[in-house]
Here is the input.
Amino acid sequence: MALGFADAGVLAFDVGGTDMKSGVVTADGTVLALQRHKTPLDPQRPGEAILERIEQLYGEYSHQFPAGTFEAVGITVPGLVDEVHGVGIYSANLGWRDFPFRDLAEQRLGIPVAFGHDVASAGSAEMELGAAREFQDAMVMVVGTGIAAAIFTSGRPVTAGGFAGEIGHAMVPDPDGQGSVILESVGSAGAIAKRYRRITGTEVDGAREVLERAMTGEPEALKVWNQAVEALAFSICQCVSILGTEAVVIGGGLSAAGEALLEPLRSAVDDALDFQRRPVIRAAALGQDAGMLGSALKARARLLEVKLS
Amino acid sequence: MALGFADAGVLAFDVGGTDMKSGVVTADGTVLALQRHKTPLDPQRPGEAILERIEQLYGEYSHQFPAGTFEAVGITVPGLVDEVHGVGIYSANLGWRDFPFRDLAEQRLGIPVAFGHDVASAGSAEMELGAAREFQDAMVMVVGTGIAAAIFTSGRPVTAGGFAGEIGHAMVPDPDGQGSVILESVGSAGAIAKRYRRITGTEVDGAREVLERAMTGEPEALKVWNQAVEALAFSICQCVSILGTEAVVIGGGLSAAGEALLEPLRSAVDDALDFQRRPVIRAAALGQDAGMLGSALKARARLLEVKLS
Here is the structure.
């Protein structure tokens, strides 16, 4: 896949709640030496622990590859992120508050560092290289343990100081009652498994197994799956009504369900909309590497910025 | 109010579903000869009928003012609008489909014409001159007979080919049942009056009278008013979660309620949000003239575009 890196490679990190991925993305866009490690957790110094691991891996990659193979580093993290100032504002899972990742990493590594939000980076990669390539007004929705989105209007990412894209915490009708609950508690892969367990008392190996059971016609599994689809459709329609979104790209673990998810989702969205635009709904194209590729794109942009300044 | 019109006045029209407003906005931003007429309705030729009235009024204003008083015309209309191509795509109330307002008006009037959406224009005026002046990520929500919004991210309007801002048609929990209904059917001034009449069988003079009755403690009026507030809060929270909106400006007829609307609305939004940004919620500053002032701003921009090309 050509990233358009005409003259420089970068070293990209995608730090997740459980794992962190790293790899060298070369000048012609090839990913080399892809590695996956457990994300280091240190409740006392959560940001420091991650930076130290990045520093260590940077040393190893530098040792493994000839000088000049990569000229910048990209780091993406979850949570609330201030991309402009390179600060991790808050991560509920990893525990930091206002940690200046970019500046500290640049000091320690001595080369330009780009810092971004994991979902925003994955979204940018889908917009530039993946499933949303031909669209200007799009939402890339990452549906896994939780749910978050990268929103684009007129081809530009909506950032709002790091506060945009928290669609997983927007309200949807409670399928079990009259009130409302957050989308993430019904529509995420995590919620599908959890709600199925709660209803049936049966242990399952994630949303995938609930889908398998639904495919055999098991009523409880079908019910939980359909409620997840309805919840996702509700939130997609909110986005379409407010923003006129023309394409919705579904990534994250749940997108592995493919048409078993997308076909009923399209149908539910179509039923719920009136005169509004009907968005194209499709699966993400870059899979689990989207965040790392987005991180590489950001590192490349940062390098150009430094070279031009 | 200074519009920053250093060197040229414009003639601005704001075409509504019932009335159309017009006025000369001078070089220093003063509004002169403000007029209000019934919007001409002709089911056979809805766009033509409006253009003819604009042509006639243009003639009258040209006769009334010295040559050079206005050098461009601004026209705003409701419905779905393609601002880029100057086309009225669709208006449910006024009846046109794909009517090329801008090009026809330029041919007939012989001076530059800007064409825009009424709510988007009112929103731009509030962003540039009014209540949203100091914000980059904002929603200007016009709550009257219906509900529509102008959405801004990073200071730029979200257009999406004319499809953005239809928040009045986004779903909210049905206060009378378990399902969902569109925001407009619960939260608009029109819906408040209609729902009160339906519940009580009592005729009222609009949402204003329902509010007056609620202030005296009448339970049905209080219920209908509070349900409207809850519905508006639900939709505002959707916008905040998706876009990280930092300010919500309420315009339209219902904003006349002032703090009787805004105070419970702030409280309901605050209760419904978790870690998300708390938006500033305030009333529109430009009142009923926002659409016409936005129309004038667009006309001014169009004039600069023509002069520079």
Notes: Chain B has two domains: 10-119+288-308, 131-284. Residues 17 and 93 of chain B are 6 Å apart (CA to CA). Chain B is about 40% helix and 25% strand.
